[in-house]
Specification:
Structural class: mainly alpha
Oligomer: single chain
Distance between the termini: 29 Å
Strand content: under 5%
Number of domains: 1
Order of helices and strands: HEHHEHHHH
Shape: extended
Amino acid sequence: MGFNSINSITLISADIANDVLGSSSFEEIRDLTGYYFGKEKFALIPPEEFNGYVSKIENKLSEEEHDMIDEIRLYMPYLTSELKFDNSNTVRETGLEVPKVSSYFGKMAKYIMKYSDRKVIR
């Protein structure tokens, strides 16, 4: 089973995706990630489902895979919290709006790839 089965799973509560990303969605980010980093589309599942899946296979995982799971769990509260950021003062005072993720994701991905060991980029 191993990490290849796990690396295509991301934690998020579907009902908070729009609150977190505004007009963007986790599906859009998934698609952009796949395109720019050459990855398969990943599934978006609730944390409970992720934890249940991991508990069934954790005795088959390598130390590296366990470390990755621990890192995912470290960030889980940030991905599943219903945080809302009020930018109304900024918008009112500057007229600026938050740009769509798709408008800058490619540039960001190229920067990440330039300064990492990875070679896949479109």
